[in-house]
Amino acid sequence: MTDTPLLISGPFTGEEEERLKNACPSVRVATLDAVGGLSEAARGGIRAVAFKGHNRFGGAVMDLLPNLGVIANFGVGYDAIDVSAASERGVKVTNTPDVLNDDVADLAVGLALTFFRRMVVGADWVASGQWPTKGEMPLNRKLSGSKVGIMGLGRIGREIADRFAAFKCELHYHARSEKETPGWTFHADPVGLARAVDVLVVALVGGDQTRNYVSREVIAALGDRGVIVNISRGTTIDEGALLDALESGAIAGAALDVFLNEPNIDPRFLELENVVLQPHQGSGTVETRRAMAELQLENVRNFLEGRPLATPVN
Ligand code: NAP
Known about the structure:
The protein is α/β, with parallel strands linked by helices. The chain has a seven-stranded parallel β-sheet, sandwiched between helices. Strands 2-1-3-4-5 form a five-stranded parallel β-sheet. The longest helix is centred in the C-terminal third of the chain and has 19 residues, at 286-304. The protein has helices spanning 14-23, 40-45, 59-63, 83-88, 101-116, 119-127, 131-134, 155-166, 190-196, 216-222, 239-248, 286-304; strands spanning 6-9, 27-29, 48-51, 70-73, 92-94, 147-151, 170-174, 185-186, 199-202, 227-230, 253-256, 275-277. It folds into two domains: 6-97 and 287-304, Rossmann fold, CATH 3.40.50.720; 101-277, Rossmann fold. 35% of the residues lie in helices and 14% in strands. Bound molecules: NADP nicotinamide-adenine-dinucleotide phosphate (NAP). The site of NADP nicotinamide-adenine-dinucleotide phosphate has 28 residues, from helix 8.
């Protein structure tokens, strides 16, 4: 065994990596693919992994690290990590919940506003220099007061709902259980939720359990005035069905921060005019990424120093 207990496996930014390096006297930096190339002694020394990214962290990699005790994920969504495999091996997993709720919720509302008020078109109207010749921009659509459905009323979903409530919207939601939210309508059936609203905001947990949860049937129920906003994971929506509906006009549009196969998204998206597309930047502010890095580090430190984990998953 070596005395290098922390493996940093990103892609981390320079600042994030420095913070982890400063906190631990000795670290290794390697992608998951490169773990097998480390010496047996180096692998045996690793007790904690500070992980970031969407590459699969499965049991096979865990088996290369016989003394691994914790995988500290950077992000609330840990669907890239096989948590069952970790639990079977006695490995704890941690994430970074709550500190990013505001930013992701802000982006969800921003996406809806950008779609309804066509702000990308508006920005181009001015920046193109053609405002004097083109005249007034075509009228767009009112968001305030519309019917909004939140698919997944967890930590982030709740923040999104609170923001839309301030926009005087009628709130509907679906989750596995009904919440204490007077005045908001619970739908036990996801199709029923879609049928009731103009805007469907997806804030579900990712992973196999919610794959294609927003199914072809849910998308169809939204109707041709309906708009989908997704800040959760690309996996939560049947992406083929979504693209079909966007191309045919079966729904009015979509505003998306997450996709299957990021960053190599389906090229069909690039042909559409009824979409607003963002490069998975929901938590991407300086302030929040710093808070996430600190929480990840707290989990690593607590583990290595024998204290209880701050935000365990399993
Ligand atoms: P959360 O608090 O765990 O809430 C998840 C919601 O999903 C809950 O309402 C939960 O229902 C529901 N859910 C979980 N499993 C389900 C199942 N099997 N069937 C149906 N519903 C299920 O999670 P969060 O912290 O709000 O995060 C929500 C999502 O945001 C995650 O997918 C995360 O990856 C994503 N995210 C994206 C970004 C970004 O950059 N775009 C940043 C951060 C997070 P109950 O309420 O009944 O438990």
